[in-house]
Amino acid sequence: MVRAASRPSLHPLERAVLHACRSGRLLAPASRALVALSGGADSTALLAILMRLRDLGELAMVSACHVDHGLRPDSAADAEACAKLCEGLGTPLDVARVEVERAGNLQAAARKARYAALRGAAARAGADRLATGHTRGDQAETVLSRLLRGAGARGLSGIPARRGWVVRPLLSVTRSEIVAYLGERGLSWREDPSNGSLRFLRNRLRAEVLPALEALAPGLEARLAAMARLLFEDDRALDRGAAALLSRSPAPSAGELLRAPLAIQRRVVRRLWRRAAGPERDLGAEHVEAVLRLAARGRPGRVDLPGGFAARVVGREEGGRLAIAAEAGDRVPGGRRARNGGGALPRPREPCGNAGEVL
């Protein structure tokens, strides 16, 4: 009698990542994943784990993309290390070199260029998911940095395990688990020298603040990550309430808006903003509160918002109708014409004051 070949057993970390992928609906057997591969420990472990799952039929395809930002003289060595790793794992690799705008926020500019390159690589590879190597430590650092900036529930919900086509299968995995796994697999990785620079807030949190807090409250990293998951669930429930309100009226009356709980009011304003400005642009808390003060006045008026947009209350029935739309002829930074949306209404006849002033 011929016995069926036994299925190879999974490493405990591989099993945990597979569970996260299935329970969080991050990746399925038919998924075609592109791994954002920096060459660091986290993305190296992620690629090795997903390749293992692919070999066992748990994923349809895995490829990788390394983005060379050209910001360090030795960045070519990172690409070489990624190529060597992918050759050993049998992973197709796409190396993308990008130009990063050095004026302004360098990290934000690098992130924008990186994700544009990753979208192109995914299209070339036929990938339907982008997998990044964010870990539980990254989650704790994100929550703490946002706490220091005074973020609300949405900000403190941290990094989502999935946002659109971007998935983060390692979000519950610790750095020590990753290093141990790489050691067992005999895989090396590159260290980014910029991670040691204390001029970046995240690096100072990682090197100084979190270790001090862990000494005072052991297990803090796990508790911060757990708090982020709870707040994410709460935020999602509140966001559904905001969506339900807007489904009844794309340009809600001020009265209807103000009868909703304050947390939902804020989310309605942010949804109106994203309809008009696009999902990539956020609206600051001070502007959200300015729009709510405008709605609470119960009469027509306007408040100017960033990027050539304005919130308006038009009419008087039920306190008037609230909408956010682009000003005629205005353009958002970068030259793209601001999008009309958010339940655009006719321009009121009242005169307008200075930017940010509610009339």
Description:
- With 359 residues, the protein is of the alpha/beta class.
- It is 47% helix and 12% strand.
- It has a six-stranded mixed sheet with strand order 3-2-1-4-6-5, with helices on both faces.
- A hairpin with a 3-residue loop joins strand 7 (301-305) and strand 8.
- The longest helix has 29 residues, at 220-248.
- Residues 329-341 and 343-359 have low confidence and may be disordered.
Approximate shape: elongated
- Please compute the radius of gyration using only Cα atoms: 24 Å
Strand order of the largest sheet: 3-2-1-4-6-5
- Low-pLDDT runs: 329-341, 343-359
Brief synopsis:
The protein is of the alpha/beta class and 359 residues long. The chain has twelve helices and nine strands.
List keywords for this structure.
alpha/beta; six-stranded mixed sheet; three-stranded antiparallel sheet; 12 helices; disordered C terminus
How does the SSE layout of this entry go?
Blueprint: H1 12-23, E1 32-36, H2 41-55, E2 61-68, H3 75-89, E3 93-97, H4 106-125, E4 129-131, H5 136-148, H6 153-156, E5 162-163, E6 166-167, H7 175-185, H8 201-216, H9 220-248, H10 254-259, H11 262-277, H12 285-296, E7 301-305, E8 309-314, E9 321-326
Parallel strand pairs: 1-2, 1-4, 2-3, 4-6
Antiparallel strand pairs: 5-6, 7-8, 8-9
